[in-house]
From TrEMBL, chain A:
It is found in: Cell membrane. GO terms for biological process: positive regulation of amino acid transport. One of its GO terms (cellular component) is extracellular exosome. The keyword Phosphoprotein applies. Residues 1-161 form the Collectrin-like domain. It comes from Buteo japonicus. The keyword Oxidoreductase does not apply. The chain crosses the membrane at residues 81-105. It comes from the Eukaryota. This is Collectrin-like domain-containing protein. InterPro entries: Collectrin (IPR042944), Collectrin_dom (IPR031588). It is a single-pass type I membrane protein.
UniProtKB/TrEMBL annotation, chain B:
This is Solute carrier family 6 member 20. It holds the Pfam family SNF. Keywords: Membrane, Metal-binding, Sodium, Transmembrane, Transmembrane helix, Transport. The keyword Transmembrane applies.
Length: 161, 514
């Protein structure tokens, strides 16, 4: 039902200092009857933006009692962003751990192989590793250790045959 | 007013005790249990107590890192999720809880912790927090693996600088009494100048603390002022709408007079309105102390959201928080792992990776308690009671042991062989008299404070009001508190008792043989 209204059809009353007022919309074509409230409400809901911009106001500064404005929800992506970042960091950390553990196992295997080789050679008597109290001399800090001259020249103690 | 006692404590307690612990670790070249056993066999309980305290600490401390990870991952959004309130179900306004409080507090209490109204209502485990906690423990494990790779005591007498980097990361406290300092110092060269390092470390630590507290208090004041002004604005809007007054007739300055005027002229409407009118006061805002860990997250995220390019500052801040937190965790785990790897029984059977992995796994599983809805209340229990009393006692026993049982002359000689000069009179007076007296008085103060206040209370988040309320602890929570304190403090006398009994038995066995 298309009906045209003029500015004079909108009647104000109860204007206060707060710049708040009651208004009714009359229908001049139908003998000054008021347009029902629900119709006015629906119209305002549809044209809220135009009404706001006409007064250079916003939903926060222009309030229609009984007409609550719907707020726009924030944009939410399909997968939450934080899960993506979490996944990236988790993969990096797990890769680092796996790498370090494997490297540690390999290093230990190499050390075991070296020590068994060295034991075999010692049994054959081919390699003399200078040992002081069970610790190889290369590992000791020579500042702290002290080589005893009496035992150093061990092979000269026995007279040669 | 706070700086004076802070500096007195630093000079009388912090520096001397830090120097003492570093020297002990460096001299004995053992973790905390071994070091104290060497000083006197009756003191093995002190080392065990340190390890127990470190164990409690590592249980709950990594939850802070989990929260830092959570905030860090959420910093990659525009706008930041704690900058605005979410909408309610029919999209007509903001969530009710978020309206009553600020958006940053809502993000912390509802979306991060999903906190329950009280300790008794345990609720479900938050899987997001559990994930972040697992990640935090994986990071700690990775750093420990790296640590044990580069440091070794018997094989290579190299000088790892791990403990120096730990010093800059000991942010929240000097880490005295945890055994982590002794553990780190035991990796030092015997000739390391620990006296100079002790002074430097404590000075750096205190300047960082002072700087951080200045920043924190200024942000805190900003937040209180902001909340106060928005409270006033809400009251003004309510009055303007109710009494149809002219815009601008009510301002913050004339609010009180206008309220009295309106109460006089329109008593009935005013009486209807008065339950909604909050009495805004700046002092009340400043008094609502956001305590402990919540401070770091709520206050700083509040400050960050008001900056330009908040995502950048948010990422930077939480990365810094993570580095500090992981550094502290490394110190704690070193304090636990060093005695374990020192002992022959365990170290020969299992490789280092397995021991560290088991320790991390156990702590992670126990830490899942703190990811439940009531988890933050349990966290506060651990935070307040696991370390404070026990640390005081441990540090007291340490000073008395080194000064009077080991003998301060012997200690002087050890320091002379290590550094090359004897400690001057300042250190000796502090170790022998000032520090023990101060610690004893602190101890007495704590106990009397507890006895006077009666039952213990905690702050619970009330979602309906949007603020913290005080509640009493239930009995089982009090039992847990008692257990926490007892578990670490009882180790000291128990250790002495066990050693005494063992010596007695050995003497009897020897005498019967002879």
């Amino acid at each position: 039902m298309m009906s045209f209204h003029e500015i004079s059809d909108v009647l104000l009353c109860n204007v206060t200092d707060r710049v708040s007022f009651w208004f009714v919309v009359t229908d001049s074509s139908q003998n000054m009857t008021t347009v029902p409230g629900s119709v006015v409400e629906a119209a305002i809901r549809m044209n809220r933006n135009r009404i706001n911009s006409a007064f250079l106001l916003s939903d926060k500064t222009l309030q229609f009692l009984k007409i609550t404005s719907t707020l726009s929800p924030p944009v939410e992506p399909s997968t939450p962003v934080w899960l993506i970042v979490f996944g990236v960091v988790l993969c990096l950390i797990v890769a680092g751990i796996v790498f370090l553990v494997v490297a540690g196992i390999q290093q230990r295997k190499k050390k075991n192989k070296e020590s068994t080789e060295r034991e075999n050679l010692e049994e054959k008597g081919e390699v003399t590793v200078t040992v002081e109290n069970g610790i190889p001399c290369e590992a000791l800090d020579l500042k702290a250790g002290h080589i005893n001259g009496v035992f150093a020249a061990d092979d000269e103690r026995f007279t040669s045959l | 007013g706070f700086l004076i006692p802070y500096f007195i404590m630093l000079i009388a307690e912090g520096m001397p005790l830090l120097y003492l612990e570093l020297a002990v670790g460096q001299r004995m070249r053992r973790g905390s249990i071994g070091a104290w056993k060497i000083i006197s066999p009756y003191l093995c309980g002190v080392g065990v107590a340190s390890v127990v305290v470190s164990f409690f600490l590592s249980m709950y401390y990594n939850v802070i890192n989990a929260w830092a990870f959570w905030y860090l991952f959420h910093s990659f959004q525009d706008p930041l999720p704690w900058a605005t309130c979410p909408l309610n179900s029919n999209r007509t306004g903001y969530e009710e809880e978020c309206e009553k409080t600020s958006s940053t507090q809502y993000f912390w209490y509802r979306q991060t912790l999903n906190i329950s109204p009280s300790l008794e209502a345990s609720g479900n485990m938050q899987w997001e927090q559990a994930l972040c906690l697992t990640l935090a423990w994986l990071v700690v494990y990775l750093c420990i693996l790296r640590g044990t790779e580069s440091t070794g005591k018997l094989e290579q007498l190299s000088n790892p600088k791990t403990w120096i980097s730990a010093a800059t990361q000991i942010f929240f406290s000097l880490g005295l009494g945890f055994g982590s300092l002794i553990a780190f110092a035991s990796y030092n060269e015997p000739t390391n100048n620990c006296e100079r390092h002790a002074i430097i470390v404590s000075l750096i630590n205190s300047t960082t603390s002072i700087f951080a507290s200045i920043v924190t208090f200024s942000i805190y004041g900003f937040k209180a002022t902001f909340n106060y002004e928005s409270c006033i604005n809400k009251v003004i809007l309510l009055l303007l709408n109710a009494f149809d007054l002219e815009e601008g007739s009510l301002t913050a300055d004339n609010l009180n007079e206008m309220k009295d005027y309106l109460m006089a002229t329109h008593p009935q409407e005013y009486a209807q309105l008065s339950p909604q009118l909050k009495n805004c006061s700046l002092e009340a805002e400043l008094d609502t102390a956001v305590q402990g860990t919540g401070l770091a997250f709520i206050v700083y995220s509040e400050a960050i959201k008001n900056m330009e390019v908040p995502q950048l500052y948010s990422v930077l801040y939480f990365v810094m928080l993570l580095m500090l937190g992981i550094g502290s965790m490394l110190g704690n785990t070193a304090a636990i792992l060093t005695p374990l790897t020192d002992s022959r029984v365990i170290a020969t059977r299992f490789p280092k990776e397995v021991i560290s992995g088991v320790v991390c796994f156990i702590n992670c599983v126990i830490g899942l308690i703190f990811t439940m809805e009531a988890g933050n209340y349990w966290f506060d229990i651990f935070n307040d009671y696991a370390a404070t009393l026990s640390l005081l006692l441990i540090v007291l026993v340490e000073t008395i042991a080194v000064c009077y049982i080991y003998g301060i002359r012997r200690f002087e000689k050890d320091l002379y062989t290590m550094i090359g000069r004897k400690p001057n009179w300042y250190w000796k007076i502090m170790w022998a008299f000032a520090s023990p007296l101060l610690i004893i008085s602190l101890f007495i103060f704590y106990l009397t404070d507890y006895i006077l206040t009666g039952t213990l209370q905690y702050q619970a988040w009330d979602a309906t009001q949007g603020q913290l309320v005080t509640k009493d602890y239930p009995s089982y929570a009090l039992a847990v508190i008692g257990l926490l304190v007892a578990a670490s403090t009882m180790c000291i006398p128990l250790g002495a008792l066990v050693t005494f009994i063992r010596k007695r038995l050995k003497r009897e066995r020897v005498s019967t043989v002879a």
